[in-house]
Specification:
Blueprint: H1 18-37, E1 41-52, E2 97-108, E3 114-120, H2 128-142, E4 147-152, E5 171-176, E6 185-189, E7 197-200, E8 209-212, H3 213-224, H4 242-256
Helix pairs in contact: 1-3
């Protein structure tokens, strides 16, 4: 088998290979857009950091606080028998870590102005403090004259805050044009369809350029060969509904036995 067995997003990437794929995808998006943007614009890679709390299980909302006692006092009965000397066991305390995030920035060449920010979500900015940090960054960006294109190819974690109900889908692309705020375009993406080609807006009156996300993902597979690294013998986490799970197994059976 050469390439992903799936027509669109490969759900098995949502695991240990995600961060490798995430950075490759940012590079492929930049490479695809660069020739389309010349000579007026450029697509640059950008890196920032978010706080990830993968093992802490924190679900407290941004404005809520939880308080835990530093010391707990209890009364020991004097008649209790003495305990033998205890041997300590050393374990690891989960700690927040700073995770690098790679994105793409469309800037105009003349003034280096940020025209369009392209964000590719990762688990770290879809949960816990990382999600709250991203939302804060997003709100600040939406107050500027910058377009925002957000690529959410992860089923787990929180979605961006929007008013209204999204059509059910495992994946989404969101586009907020600064000329149409607060309106946001959303592309719901089925597991069974290729990823869409989406517009990348520039400064008025320049026309949009087109980003072919499926071509970018296919280029990542062609370069790295993720199909050799992913374990297709078990269902991908998180769980799919019964209909999609059956389709995944049928798809794998058909493709892998060729």
């Amino acid at each position: 088998m050469s390439g992903s067995p799936f027509p669109g997003m490969d759900p098995y990437l949502e695991g240990e290979m995600w961060m490798e794929f995430h950075d490759r995808l940012a590079n492929q998006i930049s490479q695809q857009l660069l020739p389309l943007l010349q000579p007026k614009y450029v697509a640059l890679l950008s890196k920032y950091f978010v706080t990830d709390e993968p093992a802490l299980g924190i679900t407290v909302a941004p404005d809520e606080q939880s308080f835990y006692p530093d010391v707990h006092v209890t009364q020991v009965k004097e008649t209790a028998p003495p305990y033998p000397a205890a041997v300590p066991v050393e374990l690891t305390t989960p700690m927040p870590v700073k995770m690098p995030m790679l994105g793409v920035e469309i800037r105009d060449v003349a003034k280096r102005r940020l025209v369009t920010a392209i964000e590719i979500f990762s688990p770290a900015n879809k949960r816990g403090k990382g999600f709250r940090e991203y939302v804060k960054k997003r709100v600040a960006l939406l107050r500027t004259d910058t377009h925002l294109l957000e690529v959410d190819l992860l089923r787990a974690g929180k979605r961006i805050p929007l008013i209204g109900e999204l059509p059910p889908a495992p994946y989404y692309i969101f586009l907020s044009r600064f000329t149409r705020r607060p309106r946001t375009e959303a592309w719901p993406i089925s597991l069974r369809q290729p990823l869409p080609a989406v517009p990348v807006p520039l400064l008025p009156p320049d026309a949009d350029v087109t980003l072919d996300l499926q071509a970018a993902v296919d280029a990542c597979f062609a370069l790295v060969g993720y199909e050799r690294l992913l374990d297709y013998t078990h269902p991908p986490p998180p769980d799919f509904n019964a209909d999609d799970a059956a389709w995944i197994q049928a798809r794998l059976s058909a493709v892998l036995t060729r």
